[in-house]
Amino acid sequence: MSSPPRIIQPPLVVVGSANADIYVEVERVPKEGETLAASSGQTLPGGKGANQAACAARLNYPTYFIGQVGTDNFANLLRDSLQASGVKLDFLGTVAGPSGHAIVMLQPGGKNSIIIVGGANVSWPRLDGGISRLSERAQNLIRRAGAVLLQREVPDALNIEVAKIARMSNVPVVLDAGGIDAAMPVELLKNLTIFSPNETELARLTGMPTETTEEVLAAAATVQSMGVQQVLVKRGEKGSILVDKDCVIMQPAIMAPCVVDTTGAGDTFTAAYTLALIEKHSPTDALRFAAAAASICVRTKGAIPSMPNRKAVLQLLDEQSPGKEYPPCEIEEVSKNLDAQLQVGSTGDKVSQVKREHSNSPKKVRFHDSEEGKEKSLLGQSVPSLSI
Ligand SMILES: Nc1ncnc2c1ncn2[C@@H]1O[C@H](COP(=O)(O)OP(=O)(O)OP(=O)(O)O)[C@@H](O)[C@H]1O
């Protein structure tokens, strides 16, 4: 008798920015025509896309990054740091010119002023005559992803294109609202499964106050009326709120004994939540997992350097609720099989041993609403998985 098929976790695909963050510590920002000495300076890898990809890979989930770097020295810093975190870089392109970079002027009291150079992050070709900006292989990767994670530091047009490709294949699309402060295209919102802003981003999008829980819920409902299924609001020390069509889950922050630097906490949270969902954890468990990962992130300086590995997150969860086990997940190395699949046509149907679940399959992500004691569907669609 043949053994049952092994379930292979489909990869997380992060499409977005990679930035070299040039930190300078100054007493104040310089006036026009003035030259100031900084007390220290350091260049660290960052960018919301790279941060989120690095976080997911450090949490031991197979993660691909689709992005671009330039032809300057920053490109090596970015590539090396992603590689060291375990991110698969087959789809990291190089374009002539500078890599994305940011000058972060850190001032006393934790204030900062930032100037961003988009560089390679915004040098994507225009969609010309309907021809995609992405290679056929990259499109196939998106179609076969467990989820696609986007942010707003690459052109909206690229995000819209990726979101549409994913949605047509029933791949969940998560947008972290962080990045460029510009109007949100309705076409992007409509193609999202989860929209994840912080309170400020939610207020900016809706024009509504977002300080109290009631205000957040009202603003999230407004976003849902724009066509988004779920809204996951990040609220710093106040934790997070997931608003689905007919239920709400609140997750308090897991307090850190000492908060050193909150940079990257939001990226860590979104990435950890998304991969936990692909692993078919309930949203309640996924929120706990994300809160624990973000709590570890704020204990150390920097974004990528402070992102935890899975063991540290599970240890913190265990300390929080001794005896309440976070369910293990069978992660399989997926890249070898996937490489073969990406070579074939867009549907991948020439690879006979690869079977993809259809959107109407009964395998839904469900979660328990603790207040009402009911089980509900989270994504409203199946989470795709590959079995061989
Ligand atoms: N001081 C803190 N202590 C513990 N956990 C925190 C703290 N600050 C943030 N977190 C955790 O990180 C999550 C996301 O943080 P936050 O709401 O600051 O996101 P963000 O504004 O998108 O962050 P950023 O843009 O700095 O990456 C919170 O929901 C919480 O779980």
UniProtKB/TrEMBL annotation:
It is found in: Cytoplasm; Nucleus. Pathway: Carbohydrate metabolism; D-ribose degradation; D-ribose 5-phosphate from beta-D-ribopyranose: step 2/2. Its EC number is 2.7.1.15. The keyword Nucleotide-binding applies. K(+) binds at residues 261, 263, 297, 300, 302, 306. GO terms for biological process: D-ribose catabolic process. Residues 379-388 have a biased composition (Polar residues). Residues 367-377 have a biased composition (Basic and acidic residues). Substrate binds at residues 19-21, 47-51, 153, 267. ATP binds at residues 198, 234-239, 266-267. InterPro entries: Carboh/pur_kinase_PfkB_CS (IPR002173), PfkB_dom (IPR011611), Ribo/fructo_kinase (IPR002139), Ribokinase (IPR011877), Ribokinase-like (IPR029056). It is an enzyme of class 2 (transferase). GO terms for cellular component: cytoplasm; nucleus. It catalyses: D-ribose + ATP = D-ribose 5-phosphate + ADP + H(+). Keywords: ATP-binding, Carbohydrate metabolism, Cytoplasm, Kinase, Magnesium, Metal-binding, Nucleotide-binding, Nucleus, Potassium, Transferase. Requires a divalent cation, most likely magnesium in vivo, as an electrophilic catalyst to aid phosphoryl group transfer. It is the chelate of the metal and the nucleotide that is the actual substrate. Activated by a monovalent cation that binds near, but not in, the active site. The most likely occupant of the site in vivo is potassium. Ion binding induces a conformational change that may alter substrate affinity. The active site is at residue 267. It comes from the Eukaryota. Belongs to the carbohydrate kinase PfkB family. Ribokinase subfamily. Catalyzes the phosphorylation of ribose at O-5 in a reaction requiring ATP and magnesium. The resulting D-ribose-5-phosphate can then be used either for sythesis of nucleotides, histidine, and tryptophan, or as a component of the pentose phosphate pathway. Homodimer. This is Ribokinase. It comes from Riccia fluitans. The lineage of its organism: Eukaryota, Viridiplantae, Streptophyta, Embryophyta, Marchantiophyta.
